[in-house]
Specification:
Length: 163
């Protein structure tokens, strides 16, 4: 490992090499269980089709999204970053969700239910479904915790359980 002799820390290029290797390993692991770009694209298209038709979530999205092709492209980039560690997504999902009044656990429960149903229809391998669902649950938990903390304070989030 190359060291910066003034700081006794690894040289920046060493860190970039490690990060690239970690990203490559994560992408390779996802590809090995069938999570490729086509899978991500189909997952996003089918999932948001069900969201748009949903009585609870559909109106929330309809009020905020007028350009669905752009939104779907952004979501494909987001899920590619989540599942492949691609670094392609640069948005701030927390800010977007904080701007929606009234979001609560029921909304995130419904989101996860639709997501699981999409995975059940799409994923042929249980490892694929489990891997993607785990990431979706982590995202839902993070967003809900952030919303509750911002809205009600840190103490209110103490009792929240993961999905």
């Amino acid at each position: 490992m190359s060291m910066n002799h003034r700081t006794n820390l690894p040289a920046p290029t060493a860190g970039r090499g490690h990060a690239l290797a970690a990203r490559t390993a994560k992408r390779d692991a996802a590809l090995a269980i069938g999570i490729d770009d086509a899978f991500i694209s189909t997952l996003v298209d089918r999932f948001y089709e069900s969201v748009r038709d949903d009585d609870l979530l559909g109106p929330i999205f309809a009020a905020r999204i007028s350009d669905w092709p752009t939104h779907l492209g952004r979501m494909k980039s987001f899920w590619g970053s989540v599942l492949h560690n691609s670094g392609a997504y640069s948005g701030n999902p927390m800010l977007k969700h904080l701007a929606i009044p009234g979001l609560d656990r029921g909304h995130f429960d419904r989101w996860l239910t639709l997501f699981r149903a999409t995975l059940d229809d799409l994923a042929r391998d249980p490892a694929t479904a489990g891997h993607v669902e785990e990431r979706a649950r982590m995202i839902a938990t993070s967003l809900l915790n952030g919303i509750v903390i911002k809205r009600d304070g840190l103490a209110a989030a103490q009792g929240l359980e993961d999905f």
